[in-house]
Design goal:
The chain has helices at 2-18, 48-65, 76-87, 92-102, 106-118, 144-153, and strands spanning 26-27, 30-31. It has 154 residues and is mainly α.
């Protein structure tokens, strides 16, 4: 479990440190976001049904990350956002494992996360910095569906 938490923290720290970049996602000079436009999604008014799973994830993450001899600063919401974005590109056993850790399938989690962020009024402030960074590699194939889902929800 500690190895899983370390992996999750690495993803989130990387997403946090690199998340302030531009909206241009490119590999080998090709803009992967060509043809990808954010579609407005419906905001779920009542998030309570799946809030138990999100809270459970948060508690499990904090329990696994806390040691009496250390001070830990951790945002379960940021971790969940980073994992949710990543899970949209996973499939098979990897996706199943990620959904098990997160407590919800990505098809449920995507609209929940979108709605959570959009529930705040204009005079309240909650900003998250999310980004997807890819290693430039000629063998890398980035599916348009992955980019579209993340553009729409995150």
């Amino acid at each position: 479990m500690r190895k899983t938490v370390a992996w999750i923290l690495t993803i989130c720290l990387t997403a946090t440190l690199l998340g302030c970049g531009s909206n241009r996602l490119s590999v080998n000079g090709i803009n992967l976001m060509d043809g990808i436009h954010k579609d407005n999604r419906e905001v779920i008014a009542d998030l309570s049904e799946d809030s138990v799973a999100v809270t459970d994830f948060s508690i499990r993450l904090l329990r696994a990350s806390t040691r009496p001899e250390e001070n830990v600063v951790l945002s379960p919401l940021s971790v969940l956002y980073a994992l949710s974005m990543t899970a949209n590109g996973a499939e098979g056993n990897t996706k199943t494992q990620m959904e098990t850790v997160m407590g919800l399938p990505t098809e449920t989690l995507n609209p929940w996360m979108y709605s959570y962020l959009h529930q705040f009024s204009d005079d309240e402030t909650l900003h998250l910095s999310n980004a997807i960074w890819l290693k430039e590699d000629d063998g890398l194939i980035v599916e348009k569906d992955f980019l579209q889902i993340n553009a729409d929800y995150y």
